[in-house]
Design brief:
Blueprint lengths: L1 E6 L5 E7 L1 H4 L5 H14 L60 H17 L3 E4 L9 H11 L11 E5 L4 H7 L5 E5 L5 H6 L2 E5 L2 H9 L2
Parallel strand pairs: 1-3, 3-6, 4-5, 4-6
Antiparallel strand pairs: 1-2
Helix pairs in contact: 2-3, 4-5
Length: 215
């Protein structure tokens, strides 16, 4: 069975917990993870780039000069794509849809695969309970130094803190720390798991992850 030590905020071992093998013993599937990750990024992609066709450009209602007798080429409108300031041919349009559909089963498998690999690499730690008496970034930095075995004062903590429930003191205390993010257990996703090196799971978050993703 998969067992991990449980630590308090001082970095001291206070017990052990058994992990669900259905979540933390998944085979590593890099192709699936890549597919889910790119779909998440594509779904956030909004088509901001938008060019106007000759039908959308302002002006050009009148013929710029008469058809014959000027010695110049024939033109019917300054909206033509060959004119400076005219319409654009084959330019990007905001109607383009970048979104990709990925089944829930695939998203869950990718998440379990990433979590399992994190566990194998020793990058998961279970924290008994995240609690702070006040909002204090300095105190939060000290806690992360102890949990991650970092040298005191190291700026980049590089940790994803997974909470069982909303905790404004923890969230606001870690906001100003580089490479640190808090997330609720039911919002856990493969992109955040891969983005941060260390995963600090609150003990109470484990049953929520099971309830949310093991259906």
């Amino acid at each position: 069975m998969l067992k991990l030590p449980v630590y308090n905020l001082e970095g001291e071992k206070v017990g052990e917990i058994e992990l669900n093998p259905k979540i933390f013993s998944e085979k590593f599937r890099p192709a699936l993870i890549w597919q889910v990750l790119t779909s998440m990024q594509a779904n956030r992609h909004f088509p901001w780039a938008h060019t106007k066709t000759r039908g959308e450009v302002r002006g050009g209602g009148a013929k710029p000069w008469r058809q014959k007798g000027t010695g110049r080429a024939r033109h019917g409108s300054i909206r033509s794509p060959i004119w400076r300031g005219g319409g654009v041919t084959f330019g990007p349009r905001k109607e383009k849809n970048y979104s990709k559909k990925i089944p829930k089963k695939m998203r869950r498998k990718a998440l379990f695969s990433a979590l399992s690999q994190k566990l194998k690499d020793g990058e998961i730690k279970i924290v008994d309970q995240w609690q702070l008496p006040e909002i204090k970034t300095k105190r939060m930095a000290e806690i992360l130094d102890k949990l991650l075995n970092l040298k005191k004062g190291k700026k980049k903590k590089d940790a994803l803190i997974v909470l069982a429930e909303k905790n404004e003191k923890i969230r606001r205390s870690s906001n100003n720390l580089l490479k640190t993010k808090t997330i609720l257990a039911d919002s856990l996703n493969v992109e955040d798991v891969l983005k941060y090196k260390n995963l600090l799971l609150e003990k109470g978050a484990l049953p929520i992850i099971e309830k949310t993703f093991l259906k």
